[in-house]
């Protein structure tokens, strides 16, 4: 099994481009779990995944409707984009009925860490983090993201299962071709 891969992106556009590179190689049955703080860029990455898959419609945060299905615009699998933030336990997860479409669609779950691993032993877990210095506390300890967020992200991809052997290498290669060469700060990989 491949190890963890970390990519540093320099902007929201690059994060979306990384998502597009990933979306281009995803297949029906793939489960992608996105974690990260509020405003970290999970939905931005999911938008890129949808773009790479060629789905119809705008990929938006599923926060208030819990799950959205985006049909393929080119005959590939649909994208099921879900938000597990309000999911408390396996019973809540079952109400989403994600397992019914898991084999036929690509399923991307935001806030899934610690909640949706039971859906599949084969999955890609992605942590989206603001790069060091990407946001700073404003007066009173609050963070004014609009004022200080420079868009830089560290994106850590951790594969589980043989399905992902070689996939992340292809994603990194495609991303490097798509992103301006001087803006890809770092790509690192470790063996599990």
TrEMBL record:
Keyword Cell membrane in annotation: no
InterPro entries: P-loop_NTPase, T6A_TsaE
Swiss-Prot/TrEMBL GO biological process terms: tRNA threonylcarbamoyladenosine modification
GO cellular component: cytoplasm
Presence of keyword Zinc-finger: no
Alphabetical UniProt keywords: ATP-binding, Cytoplasm, Hydrolase, Magnesium, Metal-binding, Nucleotide-binding, tRNA processing
Domain of life from the UniProt record: Bacteria
Family annotation (Pfam families): TsaE (PF02367)
Any GO MF annotation of the entry: hydrolase activity
Chief subcellular location: cytoplasm
Cellular compartment(s): Cytoplasm
General function of this protein: Required for the formation of a threonylcarbamoyl group on adenosine at position 37 (t(6)A37) in tRNAs that read codons beginning with adenine. Is involved in the transfer of the threonylcarbamoyl moiety of threonylcarbamoyl-AMP (TC-AMP) to the N6 group of A37, together with TsaD and TsaB. TsaE seems to play an indirect role in the t(6)A biosynthesis pathway, possibly in regulating the core enzymatic function of TsaD.
Family that this chain belongs to: Belongs to the TsaE family.
UniProt name for this protein: tRNA threonylcarbamoyladenosine biosynthesis protein TsaE
């Amino acid at each position: 099994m491949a190890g963890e891969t970390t990519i540093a992106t320099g902007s929201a556009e690059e994060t979306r481009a990384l998502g597009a590179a990933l979306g281009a190689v995803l297949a029906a049955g793939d489960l992608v779990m996105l974690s990260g703080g509020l405003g970290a860029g999970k939905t931005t990455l999911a938008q890129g995944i949808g773009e790479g898959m060629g789905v119809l419609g705008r990929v938006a945060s599923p926060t208030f409707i819990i799950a959205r299905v985006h049909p393929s615009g080119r005959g590939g699998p649909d994208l099921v984009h879900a938000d597990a933030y309000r999911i408390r336990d396996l019973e809540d997860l079952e109400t989403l009925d994600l397992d019914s479409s898991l084999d036929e669609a690509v399923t991307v779950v935001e806030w899934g860490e610690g909640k949706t691993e039971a859906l599949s032993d084969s999955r890609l877990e992605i942590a989206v983090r603001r790069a060091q210095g990407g946001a700073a506390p404003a007066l009173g300890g609050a963070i004014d993201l609009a004022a200080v967020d420079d868009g830089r992200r560290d994106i850590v991809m951790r594969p589980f299962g043989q399905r992902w052997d070689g996939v992340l290498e292809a994603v990194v290669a495609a991303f490097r071709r798509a992103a301006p060469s001087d803006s890809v700060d770092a790509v690192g990989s470790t063996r599990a």
